Amino acid sequence: MRSLALTLARTRVGDLWSRLWSAPPRRQDQLRWLFAPDLLTFGYALRTTITSLVALGIALWWELGSPQWAALTVWMVAQGTRGKSVAKARWHLFGMVVGTICAVALVAALPQSPLLFIVALAVGIGLFCFVGTLLPGPATMTNYRIHGMRASGFTYAIIALDGIADPEHIFQIAMARATYIVLGIVLESSVSALFQFRLGERARDRLTHNFLTAIDGAARSLAALLAGDGQVLSRARSVFATITTLSDQIEFAEVELGRHHGHEGDHARAALARIAVLLSRGLDLAALMHMPGGVPADGFHANAEGVRTFLLDLPARLESGDVRPVLDRLGALRAACRQSIADSLGEEMGSDSRPPASADAAAVLQRQRMLQHGLDAMLDDLEQAIIQFEASLHPLPHDHFHYRIRSFRDWQQALANSLRASVTIFGAGVIWIATGWRDGLTFLMFVSIVCSLFATLEKPALATQAFLTGALWAVGVSGVLVLWVLATPSSYEMLALCLSLPMLAGGLAFAYPTIILAAVSYNLFLPILIGPANQARLDEIAFFNTAMPLILALWYAMWTFRLVLPFDTKGMRWQMRTGILKGLRLLARSRTLPSPLYVIERNVDRFVRLLTNAEQTPEPVVDAYLQGILSAMTIGLNVIRLRAVLARNVLPPQARQVIEEMMGRMAQFSGRYGGHYGRTARAAKLAIQRITSEAGREANLATRMEMDRALSSLNVISYELDTNQMFFDAASPYLDSALG
């Protein structure tokens, strides 16, 4: 038995030895950010480390009470590009002013009322979270309008909690904290400006690259559609996500262009929005190609092949910088589509030398005209996108064009975020008051900071968990520095030398996407845990009395976020679905119609939000919801087009009446109780039959063209209702249960 164990041990040691010396080297890509960073990442980390150490040195030179806040502010504001840094600095400064005023007012009003003070603190940060959720743009860490409200809550908490311990000196405390923040912002902005060369030119290059990236994805998808892949747009998730991401980054390029730039950013946003419209036209064309009897004929195939070749070559042509040949070629393709439509009408209606087409042939010609109309409309939107792209490259004199950032407010989510933050902070305050914990104010401060930063996110518990990981690393590194290294140096130069490598490592980690939140936490809390000062060194007791409240605060906030109004992915999808059905009903009956761009951007926002929160969701459920959102967008756009046809009042009375009846059914479409889905689908088919039969007897050319447009929209609506019945029929079972 003993010999067997000895043999087994020798075998394992031999295997280990062979792996160490003869096996191929193991990949260490997860640590590549540390030992092999790219030049831009290293430059960002080095620049920010130097700036934070300079801010710390100036704060020590001025003999400020808590100089670590100056270094912390540098890390909060610093970003990889000049535009992001300046935008974030502006909103951080704005948030600091708002938070400082509110904190002084809070301490002045409730200096001797601990419980009321905690309630007011919790409600105040909850209000900041409420307002931040409603500001334009997605609730991500790169949205610096929301960061302004986060900075307000952050400043409100640290000033109020420092001031409540010494309310007679609240003004001096507030001014000291504001000085740290302003010092950090000014230094970071000044130093980052020194490393920026050809800023305006690079910003314009970035706008160009953004458009070319988006148009390349859209062109490839549409080319595949014209080649016969009818489901390519439903699978092209990344194209819609790319358009949203690139549009969100345009404001940073506007900052880099400077104060005297034109409306390049507005035109760039409009160009990206037009690409989304272009994709929606592709969805219409896909539906028309799949309608009964909608098999493309030779004429459409010829035009489609020309458009397909043009789309595949489009990014390379645009990259040359001269869009005039592109627009000329586009005009020729549109002329070919219109000529095909005119020839089809002439063949169907006949002439002096040729009799009208038979009923069956007329129906075939009519369906082919719908396809040609769809192809022409798609080329029209592509032309508008290229024109906006040209305007973003070459600003026009006296240009007053403006394309504002769309805002889709979710009041229910804003209220949930506000309540979550308020309850978490109030609970931490109750713990402090009930236990009489000596370091309870520090614990409450860290909880308030976390709530200010993460309560506006849809999944704050996951973000706090990543923050806790970074805080543990900060505690470990700062423990080594405080208890061993920093006990020796007695000058600022040696202090900066000791801090440079740990800070540089944190800056390098910031550029690695999978650990970015942990890196932010590490960079923020490292200066706090070290606690540099002019007249003293942090001892073991003071260090542990700072580190323990920090870890407990993050752990407490993480679990409270999981228990208080946790994010429900199924609930989010169900709310999204009911909102879509309600929106379709409003489109059919509302007196004032939204623009097609609004409908597209609203549904693309839903599309991206669904993809962002698709973790651990069965793939069939995600695909069904994505398909449902795209289908709802297509139906909504065609409802708007039908109402525009009715508003022009060109249709014959019978055709107008049948469309109005279909709109009446749509106005009751898929209510939460009872459905009306089947009636709407039948009304759309009946309208198609009635208008098709009447179109053959219509002799007026303008009326026939209008009837063709109405039929195109009705066919698309009917196809989408049939294809996605489970999504649109609110009387059907809950979609997750049906497909999960």
From TrEMBL:
<feature type="transmembrane region" description="Helical">
    <location>
        <begin position="542"/>
        <end position="565"/>
    </location>
</feature>
<feature type="transmembrane region" description="Helical">
    <location>
        <begin position="440"/>
        <end position="457"/>
    </location>
</feature>
<feature type="transmembrane region" description="Helical">
    <location>
        <begin position="91"/>
        <end position="109"/>
    </location>
</feature>
<keyword id="KW-0812">Transmembrane</keyword>
<keyword id="KW-0813">Transport</keyword>
<keyword id="KW-1003">Cell membrane</keyword>
<dbReference type="GO" id="GO:0022857">
    <property type="term" value="F:transmembrane transporter activity"/>
</dbReference>
<feature type="transmembrane region" description="Helical">
    <location>
        <begin position="507"/>
        <end position="530"/>
    </location>
</feature>
<feature type="transmembrane region" description="Helical">
    <location>
        <begin position="466"/>
        <end position="487"/>
    </location>
</feature>
<dbReference type="Pfam" id="PF04632">
    <property type="entry name" value="FUSC"/>
</dbReference>
<keyword id="KW-0472">Membrane</keyword>
<dbReference type="InterPro" id="IPR006726">
    <property type="entry name" value="PHBA_efflux_AaeB/fusaric-R"/>
</dbReference>
<feature type="transmembrane region" description="Helical">
    <location>
        <begin position="42"/>
        <end position="62"/>
    </location>
</feature>
<feature type="transmembrane region" description="Helical">
    <location>
        <begin position="414"/>
        <end position="434"/>
    </location>
</feature>
<dbReference type="GO" id="GO:0005886">
    <property type="term" value="C:plasma membrane"/>
</dbReference>
<keyword id="KW-1133">Transmembrane helix</keyword>
<feature type="transmembrane region" description="Helical">
    <location>
        <begin position="115"/>
        <end position="135"/>
    </location>
</feature>
<feature type="transmembrane region" description="Helical">
    <location>
        <begin position="177"/>
        <end position="197"/>
    </location>
</feature>
<protein>
    <submittedName>
        <fullName>FUSC family protein</fullName>
    </submittedName>
</protein>
